[in-house]
């Protein structure tokens, strides 16, 4: 009987390790949006929760069953070592090791151990262990939850693309290549803007300082115009470039919409017909039901220039 029990423990442990290695090193969730990527990362915590709980339960079935805290320590150390080895292996198979993944591994392992301890400790300790496990799992899942809410808000607010009053929409906006983008109170010089917040962008000395609006609500086909507003506080005009792509974009300059926009000092409203946007120099017609990305950028700015942007929308 003892031999069968030992065989079962070893078999379950080996199967857990093999399945975990496959999930960590090979498996990929189907989507490539920020939600799916963050959920893929959060999966580390869920997986290590399961690993830690299973191994704690297996050790509890051995002669160490009356030493729950000893088991907890051994399982925690083993989980962290296993997680570290997985990250090292990733460096040799074309993927990047990540400290954030290690932190998620640790959160999941501690949560799994806490659930195990909740089964073997007294009432007060059981409550503490359960609450700690729930808090760790919620924290590890908080980012994909935020992205899921942001995606829902993006759909609810459409045809508004970004207005910077809604923090969820602002999650899909990012400054790149020496463009410092931040949401600020509407400057007093922009007197006709009644919103409370706008996007302030300092276009700096990068090659193409830019602001990227990604993971757009894709179907623009029911609308006529793309519109946004800008305020140029400089005393001279600033040329702002606009780039819009769809999901069939071939990475060629002629296969995307490009425009040079001269922003005069003060207030500017930019309105571009979608019929114009859809006609590409490559000869292809942009699929307005599959719009993918919007970028505004400048050339290298010496010295840097600041623009205020707001109310990106379709009409």
General form: elongated
> How is the biggest beta sheet arranged?
6 strands, antiparallel
Number of domains: 2
Number of helices: 7
Q: Which parts are unreliable, with pLDDT below 50 for 5 consecutive residues or more?
A: none
Fraction of residues in H or I helices: 40-55%
Strand fraction: 15-25%
CA-based gyration radius? 26 Å
N→C terminal distance: 75 Å
* Average of the residue pLDDT scores: 89
Please describe the topology of this protein.
Blueprint: H1 2-25, H2 34-60, H3 68-90, H4 99-118, H5 123-157, E1 160-162, H6 167-170, E2 173-176, E3 179-185, E4 197-203, E5 210-213, E6 225-232, E7 238-246, E8 257-263, E9 266-273, H7 274-278, E10 291-297, E11 305-314
Antiparallel strand pairs: 1-11, 2-5, 3-4, 4-11, 5-10, 6-9, 6-11, 7-8, 7-10
